[in-house]
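Discussion board: Methods & Data

I've been asked by a reviewer to show the raw model output for two of the constructs in my manuscript, not just the figures. I'm not sure how much to include, so I'm pasting the format here to get opinions. Each protein appears as its amino acid sequence followed by a line of discrete structure tokens. Is this the kind of thing reviewers expect to see in a supplement, or should I convert it first? Here is construct A:
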Amino acid sequence: MNVRRLIPATAVAGAGALGLMAVSACTASGAAERTDDGRLQVVASFYPMQYLAERIGGDHVAVTTLTKPGVEPHDLELKPRQTAELNDAGLIVSLRGVQPAVDKAIEQAAAPHKVDAADLTELRHFDGGGHDHDHGGHEGETEAEHAEHADEPGHEEHEDGTGNEAADPHLWLDPVKYAEVAEGVGAGFEKADPAHADDYRKNTEALVAELTALDAEFEKGLEKASTRTFITTHSAFGYLAARYGLEQEGISGVGPESEPSPARIKELQEIAKKDRVTTVFFETLASDRTARTLADDTGLATDVLDPLEGITDKSRGDDYLQVMRANLAALQKALGTS
């Protein structure tokens, strides 16, 4: 299990420095676009970036998001109005690798300041089954042994559209990494709107403190689990699993709509029996059909584990912190800690 729990000062400082590097000024004057009442106009790509922008920006910003509640962010196609919003923004906050159409539009947008969360922390690679490529995929295996496992069921690669294996973008599900990103986003706000830098810094510090507390809650809440394996529809929880010593087994890959092979379903049935899995998790923004079918075939319960790609009326909470605590409660129940 990962023994690093608190967010070290070096990581915070490093993320802040990265944040300054990740902010690009595209106009000669560097003046940020503002609303009629003088607030910095910020566009966020989807909910995890929206939450950071709102918490850090506070009363000094007007935040809009490209991905409306209930919309699956991975498949978002931008309308002309949304492209115009990007060009009119004073600051864009996004995460490269989640939404290909958005990534392309942001690259071409004329906004004077842009912060990409993918540049603010180290991203990791997980295969379609949720296993950690950066640490060998199978515990203790060499690179050669890892290559032998590449064709096994459930070990499909997540590609970036160029044939190259892409890093998993779901970093916000690890409170420690999300805090590192918050530091970088805060630095971006300070550069885009120096007049309110002190407030942005205070807001960032407050948010990081809350994320540090959330990390401690997850660590304490999961340390005595009777099983450490969970099955989920969408392999979005690799960072969370790696942080707290859990093993994610995804029915589909990193993309929520990919279909599992019959061999993968059979493998999951065997894993469930061997690892005493009690629950198959599904989510709020994607179909639960495959998860429920697997649960019915294996006699397992079903429950929600929310990847927090958006907040809807079906979400177990009104914001990031509330939904993450609901996720913790669901994991505790499924893993035998409560």
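Construct B, same format:
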Amino acid sequence: MTTVAAYAVPAPKAPLERTTIERREVGEFDVLIDIKFAGICHSDIHQAREGWGEGIFPMVPGHEIAGIVTEVGSGVTRFQVGDRAGVGCMVDSCRECENCKAGLEQYCVKGNIQTYNAIGVDGTPTYGGYSTHIVVDENYTVRVPDGISLDEAAPLLCAGITTYSPLKHWNAGPGKKVAVLGLGGLGHMGVKIAHALGAEVTVLSQSLRKKDDGLKLGADHYYATSDPKTFEELAGTFDIILSTVSAPLDFGAYLSLLKTDGALVNVGAPEEPISLNLFALLNGRKTLAGSGIGGIQETQEMLDFCAEHGLGAEIELITASEINEAYERVLASDVRYRFVIDTATI
């Protein structure tokens, strides 16, 4: 075991504080990553404050990890010391079920092992990226292409793949009209990726406050959802609506914006259950769907796509001492568009 510095939540809803954690020794198929940058995802806050259920404490959040490989196990074939590497939301899965064998490890039938707030195969809690180093099996590690800086790459390991995977699955591309609901950490990457895929992109946001940003990111249109005329004007418009919002919505109103056979895909996860009049689905053979992250192969595909198209996250780099303040700012939607921790400051 190796002791490394980290920032942890000692108890539910408590502020994060500097501490040390134990990392396992590098095994036969493991890589040791010197973490350079770690993104702050809204899901870190949900879990640190037990918004999604009971957590494991102390908790070291962080599943948007980018760094440099500094040691490899004797059986490792995919990485060498000095490689740029990333780790996303999961660090293992059963590897035997139908989904794992199909490259859908994120939907492992037995449940994948999350990067933090989970129990690893060795029976010990997993700790995430708000730390200086992490040891991960090479099969759950991805290569960060040279075309993306590590700080802008870190958020792609969650925000990037969480939007790329559904956009690809529902065939966003030329001739398709895609709406991105919410222009935050996830939404801004949804806009960039949908635009790069060739779709006609509309941002749906509460106000027009970020309109200039949305258009710069690649949106063709921008509408305020607080204006009732928006729902009249855009009725029956979209093939895909990608909802990145983690608050309850009037799903019936948004389903009305879909074309026949359109899909409203949720990647935001509200803490409260929703209610829905099913006539909103029946009228137009519409789909209300959800999507998680992507598998390891698809995550690598997403990183390569982003490098090819010059896409990185829009970030605000912070020191570790600013994490608690950053959490409050995320809750206030006061970030454009992803906080990234410089882990050299831990």
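Answer (T.O., handling editor elsewhere):
This is acceptable in a supplement if you add a one-line summary per construct. For B, something like: The CA atoms of residues 301 and 338 lie 21 Å apart.
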